[in-house]
Amino acid sequence: MKTKILFFPGVILLLWTGLIIALFSWFVMGEQQHIEQIALRQAKAFFSQVVTTREWNSTHGGVYVEVTDSVKPNPYLEGKDRDIVTVNGKMFTKINPAYMTRQLSEIMSTSSGVSFHITSLKPKRAANFADEWEKSALLAFKNGESERFEYLAKGTDKATYRYMAPLYATSSCIQCHYGADAAVKGDIRGGISVSIAANPLLLLADANLDRMGLVFLVVGITGFVGFGYSAVQIIRKRDEAETASRIKSMFLANMSHDMRTPLTGIIGMSELLRMKPEAHEQEEYASLLQLSASNLLEIVNDITDFSRIESGRMFLKERPFVLNGLVQQSLDMVRFACSRKDIVLESVIMDDVPDQLIGDEFRLRQMLGNLLGNSVKFTQHGSVTLAIRNQGIKDGVCTLRFSVRDTGIGIRQSHLSTIFDSFSQGEAALEDGRMGTGLGLSITRQLTAMMDGRIWVKSKLGVGSTFTFEIPFAIPDEDERLLDEGKTCLGLFGNSSLPAGYTVLAVDDNSLNRVYIQKILESHGHTVLLAEDGGKALSLLQQRCVDIIFMDVQMPIMNGIEATQQIRRRDDLAVAADVPIVAVTAFTVDGDRERFLRAGMSHYVSKPLQAQGLLDVLEEVLGETVVDSTEDNSTSHAVQSIAESSTEEHDVSGVTVELPTDSKDEVDTLVVLDMEKAMEAMAGNTKLFTILCSSFLQESEEKEASLEQAVNRQDWQGAMVAAHAIKNSAGLLCAIALQNAAGTIEADCRAIVEVHGSSGDLLDGKMLPDDMPSSENAQSTNHGISSAVSDLTTVMTQTRVAIADAIKEVERG
């Protein structure tokens, strides 16, 4: 990864740097050539001006100029006509081309650093002698060269650009050059060299180079940073995408692998049930089937919580558990496969191993299932043994060593170093003609590390393997210990001597309520159909006709009010339009009766449900008298007509609940579970009580999490619905403290929804009434609900323990 991140941007940046340097070097050379071209053009311009001026001068045979301090009498001419004096006494001297050239050279060298020099190979005067460079140029002119331009004395204060071109004799030259020095038209008489100081031009070039150098530096740095950052970002994004894709692929592969273990148990138990075993065996197989299905459900729930897994976080859920029960459940997962292969399945738990521990029971069972499943898969004969030893107890923490030993095919020594890596075990297994390994061990290693443990393997090819891991577990205090292992009752509800009666449809989003209604009414000979919401109820009613409908009012997707209105209005249903519909509601407020009546409901039954109350509503609506012998007749008032109901209000934690007028009992908010009242509400049916308690234990965590999430995101409508569901389930089991805690939260959320809507940020102060100080009351409201949720969590934990203890008490008889 690091090599790729460093190499690829390095190459890009190196190329970019080389390009910037090359471009700047090209600009430097171009600037130098530009300066030389300027100097050449200037020199040619000066040379042309001098030659033109000389030609003009010679054409006129010289010109007279007043003698001044800067213009002396021409020392290069002799004769009486060289100087003339005007009548007013002014002296003029004749300026010939040669003298004029020297005068211009002096002026130019003083003003602009440009000088001229007339020279030849055979000059008459010493001042016109040619230097070495000029001699070389004059000789070159005789050989046909037209001009010469060079940069001399580079890098010094006397650096000069020199230009020289020949002077050709013209007709005007013949006037002055005659006799021995006679000029022939077209002959080279010599030349004029032009010298231009280089430093001023070089300073100009340096300034240009400095400016452009700064530009190139800025462009280079910008490109360097831009290209480098972009390259690194591209690689990082690519690697993140590859990592995410790899994590997703590994996640799906790992989860599919983990699903096979409980699926194996489900398939095995289903196969045994098809063999029509004895009744007691059916009970055992059904229990194992439910255990495998529960394990599979937990894995599926992990898949749905994808964001948590994708971020690399898998939280352990530590709670007290019974080790013996966990071991038996793990062995049961592979017991059927062992029986089919005639493999002896054994377990050895040393006497000093604590019977109860605190840890993640599901993950430990998953780890043991992976190791046991692998051992059974690669063992054709012999045995698979699970051994658990106590490695010592310190500060209330017990370190246990779990060993799974088999007599299978073993593992090659070359594969032991990578046996716990993802997928590598699968490749090794292919050499032995086996498939399906390579993921379970990797998951087990990761879970072991999360539990602060370690795992290793010893194996000999053809003899077998022993996988061992050590994990520290806390030992629960006396008040944390579970009273008994217990088992969930999966038997049928009970026998009933009553003949088959009415067909009843129970519509409720709470599974406990649905099961309760179903079992109570089925025990009295009625057929009960179930639906989770109003929409599913309408779909069912298109195919089935029912005699009465128990309709929960508050449900997601489609509530009971809307469903009732559609039943009354639609003509495509198999049910009669005037079918009795009983509202099942936990509480009523002002206006609810009229709302139920307008929707088409004719009766209602209060939650928490009572067995005799359900039977009473059948009597009142359908005319059948059915009295449960275990219920006091006074409870019949729990079911009432909307139009004729006579109730008194009883306030439970801020929620107005409709209670029977003859209710004498006060709600004891300190009671976690009133088992006596719960059994009374269920007509003394212990199997129904056990089923509902087991369902509560399975669903309570999800409902609690839904409530916490809704409160955290200030979804008050969702929080109200979640609290309502918890309150109903608790009320059904007479878990008074939990019912009150959930009722408080539901009432608070309902008040917020009625004033502010289903959601909103209460802390911004914009949604509060005018008479409420926004910041103080908003924070108080938020804090109050959050505190109530925290209290509910505590009560929920106590309730789960109490319900688990109640199940064990019922099973012990």
Would you give an account of this structure?
By secondary structure, this protein is α+β, with helices and mostly antiparallel strands. 50% of the residues lie in helices and 17% in strands. The strands form six sheets. Strands 16-15-17-18-19-20 form a six-stranded mixed sheet. Strand 5 (148-152) and strand 6 form a beta hairpin. Helix 7 (323-341) runs parallel beside helix 8. The chain is elongated, with a radius of gyration of 53 Å. The model is unreliable at 304-310, 425-438, 484-500, 624-670 and 761-776 (pLDDT under 50).
| Helix percentage range | 40-55%
Percent of residues in beta strands?
15-25%
Number of helices: 20
Alpha carbon gyration radius: 53 Å
In what order do the strands lie side by side in the largest sheet?
A: 16-15-17-18-19-20
Outline, from the CA principal axes? elongated
Task: Summarize this structure as a short list of keywords or feature phrases.
813 residues, 6-stranded mixed sheet, elongated, 20 helices, 5-stranded mixed sheet, alpha+beta
List the helices and strands and how they pair.
Blueprint: H1 2-59, E1 63-66, E2 83-85, E3 91-95, H2 97-111, E4 114-119, H3 132-142, E5 148-152, E6 160-168, E7 188-197, H4 198-274, H5 279-304, H6 306-310, E8 319-322, H7 323-341, E9 344-349, E10 356-359, H8 361-377, E11 383-394, E12 397-406, H9 424-431, H10 440-450, E13 454-460, E14 464-474, E15 503-507, H11 511-522, E16 527-531, H12 534-541, E17 548-552, H13 560-569, E18 581-585, H14 592-599, E19 603-606, H15 611-622, E20 639-641, E21 647-652, E22 655-660, H16 675-681, H17 686-712, H18 716-732, H19 736-756, H20 774-812
Parallel strand pairs: 9-11, 15-16, 15-17, 17-18, 18-19
Antiparallel strand pairs: 1-3, 2-3, 4-7, 5-6, 6-7, 8-10, 11-12, 12-14, 13-14, 19-20, 21-22
Helix pairs in contact: 1-2, 1-4, 4-5, 4-7, 7-8, 8-10, 11-17, 12-13, 17-18, 17-20, 18-19, 19-20
